[in-house]
Amino acid sequence: MYVRAMTSKRLTRFALLLPLGAVILIAAKTSNIIPVPLEQIIPAKQRVCTAKTASGLGYSQLRPGTGARPTSASQQLTVAYIGYLAATGAVFDQSDSAQFSADAVIDGFGEGLQMMPAGSIYRFCIPSALGYGAKGAGPIPANADLVFQVELK
């Protein structure tokens, strides 16, 4: 059985309780340990967009692409993406190779996909009205604004 014995700024000491009351101190550098479960937080500067469409979808082009734009909302696309909450930066979903069509995802994501040339990377700032709205979904709370970094492959 481990019991936290004392904590300093960069070092945590644990006491290992052995039979007969013997105690052994074990030191671990906490700065090298990744906490479980992993909670990824995207910094505030990566949760903003520089332009906005008429519908209210925010976007920023992070890397231009040289390929074609999708020809229809039903076209199957391959994307890599990271989805996170605009308010906190908490990551709720990610994939390095997902396939779907623009008409099979939330409105803001689908609208953004249709303006991307293949090979580009965009950031979409999706207001809740173009996302999951008042219902929310899984780890996404009701009325949450969302941010996605998306690469169209």
Task: Give an account of the 3D structure.
- The protein is mostly beta strands and 153 residues long.
- The chain folds into 2 domains: 2-32, no CATH class; 44-152, Chitinase A, domain 3 (Roll), CATH 3.10.50.40.
- Helices cover 5% and strands 41% of the residues.
- The protein has 1 helix and 9 strands; from the N terminus they run βββββββαββ.
- The protein has one helix at residues 107-114; strands spanning 2-7, 11-17, 23-29, 51-52, 58-63, 76-85, 91-101, 121-126, 146-152.
- It has a 6-stranded antiparallel beta sheet, covered by helices on one side.
- The longest helix is centred in the last third of the chain and has 8 residues, at 107-114.
- Residues 1-18 and 21-28 have low confidence and may be disordered.
Topology, element by element:
Layout: E1 2-7, E2 11-17, E3 23-29, E4 51-52, E5 58-63, E6 76-85, E7 91-101, H1 107-114, E8 121-126, E9 146-152
Antiparallel strand pairs: 1-2, 2-3, 4-5, 5-8, 6-7, 6-9, 8-9
Global mean pLDDT: 85
User: How many helices does DSSP assign?
Assistant: 1
> Rg to the nearest angstrom?
22 Å
CATH topology of the largest domain: Chitinase A, domain 3
Order of helices and strands: EEEEEEEHEE
- Whole-Å distance between the termini? 50 Å
Fraction of residues in H or I helices = under 10%
Strand arrangement, largest sheet?
4-5-8-9-6-7
Derived from helix and strand composition plus strand pairing, the structural class reads: mainly beta
Low-pLDDT segments, ≥5 res: 1-18, 21-28
Fraction of residues in β-strands: 35-45%
DSSP strand tally: 9
How many strands, what sense, and barrel or not for the largest sheet?
A: 6 strands, antiparallel
Which CATH class of the largest domain? Alpha Beta
Which second-level CATH architecture of the largest domain applies? Roll
Question: What count of structural domains?
Answer: 2
Q: What is the general shape?
A: globular
